[in-house]
Write a structure and sequence with these properties.
Blueprint: H1 2-29, H2 80-84, H3 97-103, E1 110-113, H4 118-124, E2 130-134, H5 142-151, E3 158-162, H6 168-176, E4 181-184, H7 190-198, H8 215-218, H9 226-233, E5 235-240, H10 243-247, H11 249-253, E6 260-263, H12 265-272, H13 279-295, E7 298-301, E8 316-319
Parallel strand pairs: 1-2, 2-3, 3-4, 4-5, 5-6, 6-7, 7-8
Helix pairs in contact: 4-5
């Protein structure tokens, strides 16, 4: 299946690359403005968030759009299939704050934590919609995440882990320690999406195994009880980051139990060889946008540059990093090295947003 998906992705990439120049010429002749940023409105109830957790104001990239047009939501809106997974008896609001905000048609943002920083976590969870614990591109351990969660139980922001993979053993650890959301990277087909969804939830919805863990200490008597309501509070996010994933976007987004589909913007630029401002790149992310809308899931982009100013910004609900809801910024005191009890402090954690942007000129 992987080989077939790769061949399909290759065909899609070549077709887009060959078809775009002719179609773009026709579009330009029809009066469309190339390179003009879309005047995109924010989702209802959100508005333009105050600058906060982000790395500062950035100019809007000179987006150039291709031939794939964004679909418009029908009367069901975004996430209608995700909403159908929830039992009518589950208490609202969800104790997964990010999921509650999505169900209210609002954008959600996070702060990324990639090392053991309990003080930062406990303060940041007061201000963001969710916390992105980075375990794909870090050496942070599950036990370090567990100890951070236990430092301040019943958090406001939903603790979510970007997983190293979609293996049952990995997702089992993440859910048992108290995470209420998983973000699975580089999903190329429906099999990976299926694993992300089914290992995250208990039967009969999924096949999460019952076991011990710290989840009952992190979530102390949540409304409705942990076991009775965790399936409906769990948030499963898959990332499409390759042309293979773009080619399979419909089957990935339609997978039962997947709640949110987001683009890994940097890796998609890296793997495709296209700048994010390239019309072919914009065609690729629009293809994923359309597949996600058809499947009734929520759509997002990892890059906070898609919060405003892009034609897909009105549809972008889920973003890694971005400004805090209340404008909070990380103080210098929380950027200091953590001590391990030894005479030498641990290395200073990298500041938030330290990952370089790929495929955006001048970034």
């Amino acid at each position: 299946m992987k080989r077939n998906g790769f061949l399909l992705a290759l065909v899609v990439g070549v077709a887009v690359a060959m078809a775009w120049p002719q179609a773009q010429g026709a579009t330009s002749a029809g009066g469309a403005q190339r390179g003009a940023p879309a005047a995109a409105a924010a989702p209802q109830g959100r508005g333009n968030r105050a600058a906060g957790g982000g790395s500062g104001a950035r100019s809007t990239p000179a987006w150039e759009y291709g031939v794939v047009k964004p679909l418009e939501p029908d009367s069901r809106g975004w996430g209608w299939q995700t909403k159908s997974y929830v039992s009518p008896s589950t208490p609202r609001p969800f104790w997964n704050y990010a999921k509650e905000m999505l169900f209210q048609d609002k954008q959600v943002t996070s702060i990324t934590i990639n090392s053991y920083q309990p003080e930062l976590y406990c303060e940041a969870q007061k201000h963001f919609d969710y916390i992105w614990f980075e375990m794909q591109h870090s050496t942070m351990s599950y036990d370090e995440v567990r100890r951070m969660l236990l430092t301040c139980p019943n958090p406001h922001a939903a603790p979510m882990i970007r997983m190293p993979d979609a293996l049952e053993a990995s997702i089992q650890k993440a859910t048992d320690l108290g995470a209420i959301g998983v973000i699975v990277p580089t999903v190329d087909d429906a099999l990976e999406a299926r694993d992300a969804a089914r290992f995250s939830r208990y039967p009969p919805f999924g096949r999460r195994s019952s076991g011990s863990g710290s989840f009952n200490q992190v979530w102390q008597r949540p409304q409705g009880g942990y076991r009775n309501t965790i399936n409906d509070n769990m948030l499963v996010v898959v990332m499409i980051e390759t042309l293979e994933g773009v080619a399979n976007a419909d089957e990935i987004a339609s997978t039962y139990g997947v709640d949110v589909v987001i683009l890994g913007n940097n890796d998609l630029s890296s793997f495709s060889g296209w700048a994010q401002t390239d019309p072919r790149y914009q065609d690729a992310i629009t293809t994923v946008h359309n597949a996600t809308l058809r499947a009734g899931k929520f759509y997002g982009n990892a890059g906070e540059q898609y919060l405003t100013g892009n034609r897909l910004s009105p549809a972008t609900r889920f973003v890694q990093d971005g400004p805090a809801r209340d404008g909070w910024t990380v103080p210098a005191s929380l950027r200091r090295p953590a001590t391990t009890g030894a005479t030498q402090p641990t290395p200073a954690p990298p500041p938030p947003h330290e990952e370089p942007l790929i495929g955006l000129p001048g970034r």
